[in-house]
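Hi V.,

You were right to ask for the full record rather than a summary. Here it is.
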Amino acid sequence: IESITLSFPFVADALVAPLEREARAAAAEAKPCCYAAIVVLGGGVIPAMPPGFPAPQLTDGADRIWRAARLFHAGVAPRIIASGGRPRIEGGSQSEAQAMRDILVDLGVPASSISLEEGSENTIENIEFVRLLVGNEAVALVTSAYHMPRALRLARMHGLKAAAFPADWQLAWQQRPPWLNWLPTLEATLTSQIALREYAARLFDWRESPHRPDP
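Predicted structure:
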């Protein structure tokens, strides 16, 4: 019964809406420029893993990468930091950061303007390791809207001066005929799951420590 409930679009909307409201409010407070770097968090791409994946594969969160490229071209910051480590698999696959760089270059961002943070395996390490790269400089932080509240919370905890530039919005009730709210869908189930994961991480993730790395 619980899984069926989570598959209704109106339930998914109710779960993700508070997260996206927080992201929208934070974005409204962000100045339009000028930052030391645009930081795009991993989660928008599957790195190349030959022979199965000979090239990077875009995921549902790929709007993060597109958003980062658009911000760069708009002059928000002179460089992009792609943050994401290597998957824990055999085969020497590329890191998420390398995969994002490949796509950013295809989107017109010069390779010389892209820095890689390849050591992180989760959001906490994304934030900590980027903080080590930029010190006390302010950055434009790009991640999915539902993920932005937790990312900003971690940024505050670890001393990263980050402004919110969310992407990958999930809430789409205005574009949906009302009768579709009563039809269970796989998309709604996935949206419910990612929202619940964010709430659980905020409440129970023991890795969220107040340690602040030195610049």
